[in-house]
Design a protein that fits this description.
heterodimer, A: 121 residues, mainly beta, 4-stranded antiparallel beta sheet, 3-stranded antiparallel beta sheet, 10 strands, globular, B: 813 residues, alpha/beta, 5-stranded parallel beta sheet, binds flavin-adenine dinucleotide, binds iron/sulfur cluster
């Protein structure tokens, strides 16, 4: 058995209001040491991913195009699932994600208490 | 800050397939929004109940069918109580009580208690040796019995009964299937299919007692046989009861939740009590209780989205299909399966190869099917049934086809009044008339004109055959199959542009909806393309969709590989002033830009600008954007020309500045470059530009389609004109013609090759009326363009959201 991280120990931080984010346009949030790309979908869902392109050429992802719950990487045009950070076929890769809580109009992003976001397997 | 303890508490009763599937989807959609507790009566983590049939026949062990092991619950922070049955729900206090004495509060409760095997209410049904087939315990019971006893009876000739019987047979028992009706699986198979299946199973060793009504179980403490209503008996030391299932509603019912056959739920799986949901076999939705997994996954998807606050369509019921999991017997059934009035039936029955295939059509559409002995096409058939696809040659071939089927055009054989498109009731004659009267040449045009193939698309191959049949030699299948603009659609650029005009579609959302895009929000390929086409077709009405622009066009600067930007101010015709140069230099210093580069287009690029500094730099510069990033006119490169040069015959700088000022900012299919030269020495390199203009003996020569980029191409002479007015009109007509007919991202070099120089010359030079009309449409388009930098500067809200980062400290305060 692989070691099990305690994956649910998050601390949530208020980063702004729902209206601070524009549908289908990313916005960079610096949360402590983390640089996070925050996206709002047409459905109004908010997602937070590490602002780092998984592609070979590096770069950031906040500038990408959003379609449904998929982000098109602005540098390599890979498709990235907003829900779990997985790069979709035919490419492979993974972007860290952070849990988002929306309470009323307030948006909070969770950091693992020991730091950072998480990779989904 | 919200700590873990404050998360809402989700309690799940029933650790089975529906409940855990719902939880999995919740974890995917919104990890961490719920704290989750799960109760399950069985002593196992969640397993694949379907595969119990494999455990019974010993082709799989219990460990092999576990879907989520205990580590999974741990990793996801789920509290799991196995071998624990919930005995009461207090819907007032919002708590549940379990048989181990625990009492836990919930914010949201999901009931997923599945169903119980139905035990026939006949005398002796409580004797030892009579079991249902539902869980691992039942399975172990059966395995145990097989070791000790020889003669088994399975009551129920449905899916579950047959799988149980086949399992026991494999374990070495002598098995008889008892069935109330004359035909087994009568709810999924017609007479022929049922008999074939029975014969197949008999050849494998199963016995059948059909048309038998069980009246009593014989024996003392333990069962020894069955007596039927016709007076006959059957010896049996072990009986499996597989006559049906009953939703497990006891708990919900005694807790005051509304039930009928199952726990009553609405389209979002909500029960009669607030915050209590029911999913899976235990519920009853619109009068239906299900007994298969497909519906429960669909229900789970809707429920999970609902609980995570994600917009979702309501659950409206499922089309179910059946597949028997007995090795060596392919059995598939879905939708309607019995012959009936109003149905046309395609049937293939091959007794030698023991294959039977039946597809049922209503109004030409596939509404059901049965496959015995060859299930290769089952998943596609299932799909066709679900979408009510029209039967076509190709589908017919795929299902019942023989190797040597004639694949020629059969459109001629169709009667005129035959309905080709069942969805929209379009006849063959209707389509032929449209082709003849309107001179249609593509399926797409037929679709627009007649609605044929507009809905499910299943009849598209037939429509294409009719087109081919009517046009004969003129039918060019290459033309009919133009390249789709992206993988969200099968439509080509021309088909999309035609539809936008004819249907009056203004937004890209409308286009994707009306033209039935696969992906409702499009992709990185079609989004910018549609935004361009819409702006080109509706210059006044279309509102630019920023979220469909590539980042450079959105930020009005060129993103560099380190995430900083390059800013290029306009420098019309490559001409500047000492004041402007000084200003640019000062700003470069003020914002600490990393590098200043003289570009190939005769201007300056300030590189290494931070995103949040972009609006400030524009403001300080007070110059328009140079559009060095855009699918638009980039620069007009000029030579010194007659103002200073000894050879110059024309004022190239003056004309260049005039052209750049006129056409700047206008969206084009791709980037667009101009050059103007004072004489044929061509110092500003006309031959590699989209339009290269050369002064020659007092006249202007216009060259077009040049490209100095990846695929170099020399510009070709379009025409020669005397006056500046003529030059401006032809340049304008050329650019507009390219805008109207070019594919998004297609440079003029490729466009000219595709269109042919001759036809372009005809359209923009020779045909004077057309030339004027193009130039006029260009003026309409030009009237709409705005300077983007000032637009963003004047809208502080937009500016903040687009350019400013949010910074939050993680230090406790
Ligand atoms: C042998 C077999 C073969 C099958 N083959 C197929 C097939 O080929 N295709 C197909 O689509 N379907 C098949 N099915 C049906 C399929 O397994 C069910 O549709 C599905 O498992 C239903 O899921 P559920 O979560 O609603 O119920 P279940 O999976 O039965 O889960 C309900 C769980 O809740 C527990 N529970 C009940 N009450 C309580 C309580 N008060 N407190 C705590 N826990 C409780 C039960 O113990 C059970 O573990 C088959 C079923 C069987 C038995
Ligand atoms: S192209 Fe002719 S006019 Fe222009 S600079 Fe060169 S030589 Fe002079």
């Amino acid at each position: 058995m692989e070691p099990i991280l305690n994956r649910n120990e998050y601390t949530y931080y208020l980063v702004g209001n729902v209206d601070d984010f524009t549908e289908r346009l990313g916005r960079v949030v610096r949360l402590g040491k983390e640089e996070i790309a925050v996206f709002k979908t047409t459905d109004g869902q908010i997602y937070a991913l590490e602002n780092k392109s998984p592609g070979p050429r590096g770069g950031t992802i906040a500038e990408g195009m959003i379609s449904g719950e998929v982000l098109f990487d602005p540098i390599c045009d890979w498709k990235i699932s907003l829900t779990d950070g997985q790069v979709l076929d035919p490419d492979k890769g993974q972007v860290r994600t952070y849990p988002v809580q929306v309470l009323g109009n307030e948006v909070r992003i969770g950091l693992l208490t020991n730091g950072g976001g998480l990779f989904h397997e | 800050m919200v700590e873990a303890q404050e998360r809402r508490h989700l309690v799940l009763i029933g650790n089975g397939m529906a409940g855990i599937n719902t939880v999995e989807q919740i974890l995917k959609l919104a990890p961490g929004i719920y704290r989750i507790t799960v109760f399950g009566s069985e002593p196992y983590p969640n397993y694949n109940r379907i595969q119990l049939s494999y455990v019974l026949e010993k082709s799989k062990a219990v460990e092999d069918i576990i879907l989520n092991d205990r580590d999974w619950y741990l990793e996801n922070g789920i509290e799991l109580y196995t071998a624990t049955t919930v005995t009461h729900i207090d819907t007032e206090q919002k708590t549940v009580k379990a048989d181990n004495g625990m009492e836990v509060p919930y914010d949201t409760l999901i009931i997923a208690t599945g169903s119980n095997p139905f035990i026939l209410p006949v005398p002796g049904a409580d004797k030892e040796g009579i079991v249902g087939f539902r869980d691992i315990a039942d399975c172990e019971n059966m395995l145990h019995a097989a070791d000790q006893y020889k003669k088994a009876a399975v009551i129920g000739g449905g899916l579950l009964g047959l799988e149980a019987a086949k399992g026991l047979l494999k374990l070495g028992m002598d098995v008889t299937v008892v069935h109330l009706f004359e035909e087994i699986m009568e709810r999924q198979l017609d007479h022929t299919a049922s008999l074939m299946l029975q014969a197949e199973l008999e050849s494998q060793g199963l016995k059948f007692a059909t048309g038998k009504h069980t009246e009593e179980f014989l024996g003392d403490k333990r069962v020894s046989g069955i007596r039927f209503s016709d007076g006959t008996t059957l010896d049996a030391e072990f009986v499996v009861m597989a006559v049906g299932i009953r939703p497990n509603i006891a708990l919900a019912k005694e807790s005051g939740i509304a039930v009928n056959k199952g726990i009553l739920v609405n389209d979002y799986m909500r029960t009669s009590v607030p915050d209590v949901y029911a999913v899976g076999e235990c519920n009853e939705h619109r009068g239906i209780t299900y007994g298969l997994v497909a519906p429960l996954f669909e229900q789970g998807a809707v429920l999970a989205k609902h609980l995570c606050g994600v917009d979702t369509k309501p659950y409206e019921g499922s089309v179910v299909s059946t597949q028997l999991k007995i090795s060596g017997v392919d059995v598939f059934s879905a939708g309607e399966f019995m012959d009936a009035e109003g149905l046309s039936i395609v049937r293939m029955h091959d007794d030698w190869r023991r294959i039977y295939k039946k597809v049922l059509l209503r109004g030409g559409r596939i509404v059901g099917g049965v496959l015995i002995g060859d299930g290769k096409e089952s998943s596609r058939l299932q799909q066709w049934i679900r979408t009510g696809t029209i039967m076509t040659e190709a589908i017919h071939d795929a299902i019942v086809g023989l190797a040597s089927v004639e694949t020629g055009n059969t459109a001629a054989e169709l009667a005129d009044e035959e309905i080709v498109c069942g969805c929209n009731g379009v006849t063959k004659k209707h389509i032929m008339d449209a082709i003849n009267e309107k001179g249609l040449t593509t399926v797409e045009e037929i679709k627009v004109a007649t609605s044929a193939s507009r809905s499910c698309g299943g009849c598209r191959p037939v429509v294409e055959q009719i087109l081919q049949y009517v046009l004969g030699d003129k039918y060019d299948s290459a033309a009919a199959k133009q390249e789709a603009i992206c993988s969200c659609t099968t439509l080509s650029r021309d088909e999309v542009v035609t539809a936008i005009k004819e249907k009056g579609l203004i937004t890209s959302k409308e286009v994707r909806y009306a033209l039935e895009w696969d992906n409702p929000e499009g992709c990185s390929k079609c989004r910018p393309a549609l935004n361009y086409y819409l702006g080109m077709i509706w210059p006044a009405e279309h509102v630019d969709e920023k979220d469909s622009r590539f980042v450079n066009e959105r930020m009005h600067a060129n993103i560099q590989k380190d995430g900083t930007f390059g800013v290029v101010p306009r420098m019309y015709g490559g001409v500047t002033t000492p004041e402007d140069l000084r200003l640019i230099a000062d700003i470069a210093v003020k914002y600490n830009v990393k590098l200043v580069k003289v570009t190939g287009g005769q201007r300056l690029d300030l590189l290494g600008v931070k995103k949040e500094d972009l609006p400030k730099i524009w403001k300080d510069l007070g110059m328009p954007s140079g559009y060095a990033y855009a699918k638009a006119l980039r620069t007009v490169k000029t030579c010194v020309g007659s103002q200073f040069c000894r050879f110059g015959t024309k004022d190239s700088m003056g004309m260049g500045i005039k052209l750049e000022k006129k056409f700047e900012r206008l969206d084009m299919p791709a980037k667009f470059k101009l050059a103007v030269n004072g004489c044929p020495r061509n110092c500003a390199e006309s031959s590699t530009k989209d339009i290269g203009i050369v002064g020659n003996e007092g006249a202007w020569e216009i060259y077009v389609g040049g490209n100095g980029g990846i695929k170099a191409r020399l510009a070709e002479l379009l025409c020669k004109v005397r006056t500046d007015e003529e030059l401006l009109e032809i340049v304008s007509a050329f650019m507009q013609y390219y805008r109207e007919t070019g594919k998004y991202l297609e440079r003029t070099s490729d466009w000219i090759e595709r269109m042919g120089l001759e036809s372009v010359t005809e359209a923009v030079v020779s045909d004077l009326d057309n030339r004027r009309a193009l130039a006029e449409r260009m003026e309409v388009a030009l009237a709409q363009v705005k300077e983007p930098w000032s637009e963003i500067l004047n809208n502080s809200n937009l500016r903040e959201r687009m350019f400013d980062e949010i910074s939050v400290s993680t230090k406790p305060n």
